[in-house]
Amino acid sequence: MLAWLVKEVASPYGDVATLHWAVPDTDDNADVDALNSTALQVKLESAEDQLGAVLWNSNTAALNHLHTNIFVSSAVHADHHGARTDASSTAAPLAGKNIVELGAGVGCLGIALAMAGARVAITDLKELLPLMEHNARLNDRRVQSRSGGAGRCVALQWKWGPTVSTGVHKQVQKACGGAREPAPQQRLPITDADAVDRVVSAMAASLLKPSASLAGCVEALQPTAAATSAGAATTQCRFHYVILCDALYGNPKDWPALLYTLTELMATNPNECQVINFCEQRVSDVEGAFLALLDAENGKTYVQMDQRLERGGDALWANVVESAMRCCRSASSTSSAVEQHALREEAANALLSYVLVQRRGAYRWTYSTEVLQDAQSDLNMVIRATQIRWTRVVSNDGEASPATSRHPRRPREHDDDDDDNVDGSAPDGTPAKRHRAGGRQHRC
């Protein structure tokens, strides 16, 4: 029988008391009865039987890797005067860092990072919010004492993707046919490309603003900064790390929404923000298909919004308008419901594709994947960590250029001409050994 249990999970920053959903050992019966009170069961009813309520097998291994290979290496850096600082020796090595854990589940990993001094948002679906909040409160004193008051951990609901409408057909019909969408027999053909352009332009501008999820995260982590407008507060709040653990084992249909959220977070700090994704290899190369989405993004050309009518225009924007026109024409034709649905999806996807490129600007996705050599999961599974970041694309004349050429290159770990990595070293500053696996370069 499954029940709520508490386990102390080891981390480089101290143990984390973690309530999770599991099968108790026979020796734990007394503790189980005490924990599983009626009040707690009612409070956490929405989280029962949720996959995210199960304690991830690789928390300790992932935290050790982050501490040794990511945070300590990043903390040793040259300041503006050339001096070197080792922030890893301080009591709160992550003080001043803003971190988001997506798909946090029980929140164990994010809570540990708060103990190291970071401001951390542990996020997941609304069903898991009460569980994350419980674990954050359970460890609040530890966070404050171990971080010297610098750390903070908040639990938030965060559904990946935009939080405003992407229904192009509805917005165009409202603009051209009145406040309410007309009945099918009353719809008029929409042939005014200028009107459609105005509507989708307004939708793109809305999507380029901080989403409600991002604005809520900023407000929770930095309430003083968020007291101003949402856009100004988001500009002031730069995120340094985004952590995912086994988040790619869900439905691949959710990955475009995840890509949207990652893009939005990285855009707050494009030169420094890193995404660290951990995957137990229950399925070989489980992250490969998601990384292919990043390759596809690098194949799209960025054109500044104010230049999309110049220099031959912007193919992505032209596709947005054309898709919207096709979608709206089908509404007043004899197209089947299936055909209309497909065209509506096409119009929404074209708009989101354009917004992603505009938000990323003159940057491209780069990534490197490595096997954790010194650790496995509690179930002795291989763990792979993928480090994802943006690299600014610079043309020969020193100006920012489109995110790709006509024939885009597959992203390498780091290019020899990258601004922030001229010596060809790994992201953590150590020499990288490379071998090819499945067409991608991996670091061992």
Describe it.
The protein has 14 helices and 13 strands. The strands form 3 sheets. Strands 7-6-5-8-9-11-10-13-12 form a 9-stranded mixed β-sheet, sandwiched between helices. Strands 1-2 form a two-stranded antiparallel sheet. Strands 3-4 form a two-stranded antiparallel ribbon. Mean pLDDT is 81; it is low at 78-89, 185-190 and 404-444. Helix content is 36%, strand content 17%. The radius of gyration is 24 Å and the shape is globular. The protein folds into 2 domains: 57-161 and 210-302 and 364-414, Vaccinia Virus protein VP39 (Rossmann fold, 3-Layer(aba) Sandwich); 168-207 and 304-358, no CATH class. It has 444 residues and is an alpha/beta fold. The two termini are 41 Å apart. The protein has helices spanning 29-35, 38-43, 59-75, 108-115, 129-138, 140-147, 168-177, 193-207, 212-221, 230-236, 255-266, 288-298, 315-331, 337-360; strands at 3-9, 16-22, 76-78, 84-86, 98-102, 119-124, 152-157, 241-245, 274-280, 363-371, 383-392, 434-437, 440-443. The longest helix has 24 residues, at 337-360. Helix 11 links the parallel strand 8 and strand 9 (274-280).
How would you summarize what this structure contains?
The protein has 444 residues and is α/β, with parallel strands linked by helices. The protein is built from 14 helices and 13 strands.
